[in-house]
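Quick one: structure tokens for this chain, please?
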Amino acid sequence: MGGPHFDLEAIWEEHTYYEFADRSVEHTMSTMVQEPYVNHVPTLTGGVGQEKLSHFYRHNFIFNNSADTELELISRTVGVDRVIDEFIFKFTHDQQIDWLLPGVPPTNINAEVPFTAVVNVRGDRLYHEHISWDQGTVLHQLGLLPEYLPFPYALPDGRSASEGSCFEYRIPVGGSETADKMRDRNGVSSNEMFKFEIRETKQTAKE
């Protein structure tokens, strides 16, 4: 078929270079259409349109990422008008990263988080990005998520906690092993969370 053909991978890689290596708002925006949008699904951060997205990149993204940020590509699928990447987002949480952890002060901890990016391209410019990850594993790796939380509902088997106690469930969230599993299907055993069980524990007195 006739018509221009564009290298979608090169367009996407140029965009991420400007975001994470060049760190230029102007260059980043030059890779996008006039009405682009970006949505980071777990945190609802990003923007719609040149003005709002430029503001987001300038104040909440490009200069908020740690200097050691790295995107480790695991797989890539290229279609007629889009690129879909599986990658591991590696960083040190040494400053507040607004788009990833809004309102959370730096913990100075390293993390490796599996990400998925669905990137739509129109002509030779990016139209939109849908970026997804498991926020639970981010919080877990940074030590911001407890291992257990109270279970506030009746149990199906009718059990009741004894006086002064409560039931807690173990949060089904993985840590850095989620990245290990993405790299190597045999690197981490499957189904280990099937061993998780509810527990009864003494309630802590409220101050």
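The radius of gyration is 21 Å.
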